[in-house]
Design goal:
Length: about 425
């Protein structure tokens, strides 16, 4: 310990002097001595009165200081990539807070907290993973944030609480007979484009929005992430439609690229994952950058070669071990680059994995122009739809077929096609 530094116990004792004075006035010397002995014991947790503390306003029952300052929810809450038994909810406040979500089927009488390693998270961006849910169940929820005015070892200063308006989410469910979702890609910070495309969809009858990446040109900062992407999306889809996201190569660029994952907090904490809803097993992959790691523009800061190896190994394991991958009526691949990234000959390896895994349809972007690559044209045994930059794809899947309609920004039909269910033995 630094010479002359005040110990925690000594500091606690000093902070309780006003309380001891008050006890002396009311109980006399004996009471004050007893209290001082209690306070001097290491590790003793004695609750203070408010004497010597800032006034509590609005939450007068709390034994710690609560200032009359209420946080504001600036962005969200928004839903990210639910599973059959969990959902992820994120939002942003103007000042540091700790947070939780109230939720329940009939009323929000359960709560899930944002915490790590035994500590409630305190910050301005909040993420709560709610687990242990029922498949296909609709839940009510409200996001709750309580301001933390100043962090201290003992007696942090608190503020008041804000709650989001009541909203609903529904978990995914592989037992449902059908699913309908919409896909867009390469919105590239164009908020007018996002608004126009979101208006083309019937969100009340959609299960989720799939964004296939390149939401940005380069990822610069938090304000940009909300202003150029998440807020315009939320205005279109509302608080109850979840976002399922495949990372684009442009999301790997820029000073905020390494923070970006916090704003699309996929439960698995990585950008490749699977989901099940209705008759579809979704495999979302990260096709990474579009140039080799040693390309000069990256200045030696990229390591996508080993990342791709890890991802491909994971996909192989998933195909080998997932019963749902084998048994689902359909397997849809969601990815940004239609050919996985054209570096180091990996395309053939990944296409081989997809062929062997019985992928029925791939949805991609990156090219900014519509393209439909029929099965067999480039070694793929499944069709690849490349959605254009100003287009919205509606995907409707039942147990027997997938129907896809691609709409232009003005609502006109660009292309439509149907993928029929294949017998299990004919997939490879
Ligand atoms: Fe791209």
């Amino acid at each position: 310990m630094r010479a002359g530094a005040e110990t925690r116990e000594a500091r606690a004792f000093r902070e309780r002097i006003p309380e001891m004075k008050r006890v002396f006035r009311t109980c006399g010397l004996v009471g004050a001595v007893l209290l001082s002995l209690c306070l001097a014991m290491p590790g003793q947790d004695v609750r203070p009165t408010r004497e010597g503390q800032p006034p509590n306003v609005g939450q007068a029952a709390e034994p710690y200081a609560v200032f009359d300052t209420r946080p504001v929810i600036l962005h969200g809450p928004y839903l990210v990539a639910p599973t059959e038994t969990s959902v992820t909810i994120s939002w942003e406040t103007d000042t540091p807070c700790h947070s939780k979500v109230l939720y329940g089927v009939d009323r929000p009488n359960s709560e899930a907290i944002s915490a790590r390693d035994g500590l409630l998270n305190v910050g301005t961006h909040h993420t709560v993973h709610i687990r242990g849910l029922k498949p296909g169940q609709t839940y009510q929820f409200q996001a709750v944030s309580t301001r933390v005015v100043k962090m201290k070892g003992y007696w942090p200063d608190k503020g008041l609480t804000v709650m989001s308006p009541a909203a609903k989410f529904r978990t995914f469910d592989s037992a449902r007979p059908s699913t309908t979702f919409y896909a867009v890609t390469d919105t590239h910070e164009d908020t007018a484009r996002i608004a126009a495309l979101m208006k083309l969809a019937d969100w009340t009858n959609a299960d989720f929005l799939l964004h296939l990446g390149d939401a940005f040109n380069t990822v610069e900062n938090e304000d940009q992430v909300f202003a150029r992407w998440l807020d315009p999306l939320a205005r279109g889809i509302g608080p109850s439609t979840p976002l399922v996201y495949a990372r684009g190569n442009h999301e790997t660029r820029g000073p905020f690229a390494r923070e970006f994952h916090r704003y699309v907090p996929i439960e698995e904490d990585r950008f490749y994952y699977t989901r099940d809803h209705g008759p579809v097993h979704f495999v979302v992959v990260d096709t990474g950058e579009d140039k080799p790691d040693n390309t000069n523009v990256y200045a030696g800061l990229n390591a996508f070669a080993p990342y791709r190896e890890e991802e491909l190994a994971w996909l192989e394991t998933h195909s080998r071990e997932s019963k749902r991958m084998a048994d689902a009526p359909f397997r849809i691949l969601a990815m940004h680059q239609p050919f996985w990234g054209y570096v180091n000959g990996e395309n053939d390896r990944w296409t081989d994995w997809a062929n062997r895994s019985g992928i029925d349809l791939a949805l991609a972007g990156h090219m900014h122009r519509f393209s439909f690559i029929e099965a067999g044209r480039r070694g793929n045994r499944f069709p690849i739809l490349v959605i254009g930059q100003d287009q919205l794809a509606k995907v409707e899947a039942t147990a027997s077929q997938i129907k896809v309609s691609v709409l232009a920004k003005d609502g006109s039909l660009v292309h439509s096609f149907v993928v029929e269910r294949r017998a299990a033995g004919s997939r490879q």
